[in-house]
Amino acid sequence: MQASPLMFTDQAQQDVIMVLKFPSNSPVTHVAANTQPGLATPAVITVTANRLFAVNKWHNLPAHQGAVQDQPYQLPVEIDPLIACGTGTHRRQITDLLDQSIQVHSQCFVITSDNRYILVCGFWDKSFRVYSTDTGETTTPRAILTGHDYEITCAAVCAELGLVLSGSQEGPCLIHSMNGDLLRTLEGPENCLKPKLIQASREGHCVIFYENGCFCTFSVNGKLQATVETDDHIRAIQLSRDGQYLLTGGDNGVVVVRRVSDLRQLFAYPGCDAGIRAMALSFDQRCIISGMASGSIVLFYNDFNRWHHEYQTRY
């Protein structure tokens, strides 16, 4: 991976930390940022559409050293939080082929919080498979969850609450315990029948994006709290850890920050030169990592307090 010239205007660059390019040019379809202090290997893990994955080492840095007074939210350009070059990166390939009828996307993959394993779905035998990020070899799954009548299109894990959320092609989203018990069904409005993306926060908030372009927010008890429609073909969503903010990205190449309680837009980042396929937040939530259709990853500086304050000022 190598650093790439920024594609943004000078004014917009204050929110862009870095642009990195993968040599394969394959779309980056999944990004996971497990960068919390204390991990044996804090890293950003990326998976491309041709099933290449990379473990990119992350160096936690002190915040805002040398920030410019007139631009208090800008990270100094010499800070380079992602080390992803040469010997510092493990690049491996998931050798098992996915079903040719499956479009590879972000929800086909889950990375465990210790960065040791990748869970992959979309195989011809309808199985989930677990791969070691160190060796690339398969291992044994812990449990099998059932309850859907149709193929599963999206899934998310909330480890803090011990929950697994999943949605199927022609049915509602389900909440399971990690032991396999079916706990609850999440029913959206009548026109929301095909869930495509799902995210859950440790505070129990759940956001689902449906094929018709509608977002829905649910409580962990299954109560529908808010809905909103978008005309962008959304490919990736990410919740803040406290569940108050939602990041979205899609084919128009724009990362949007929304408030979860009512799904109102707070902020939109400068548009990229390619569609967004995947997204993650660093542990300190100060960095948004977006995987691009062009085979790049773009790192944006993030400050939820800033977006909230600017929204309040506008309205």
UniProtKB/TrEMBL annotation:
Q: Name one GO biological process term.
A: intracellular protein localization
Q: Which GO terms describe its molecular function?
A: protein kinase binding
Pfam families in the record: NBCH_WD40
Which positions fall inside the Neurobeachin beta-propeller domain? 139-301
What is the superkingdom listed in this entry's lineage? Answer: Eukaryota
- Give the CC-aspect GO terms: cytosol; membrane
Can you name this protein?
Neurobeachin beta-propeller domain-containing protein
Please tell me the species this chain comes from.
Myodes glareolus
Ranked from the top, the taxonomy reads: Eukaryota, Metazoa, Chordata, Craniata, Vertebrata
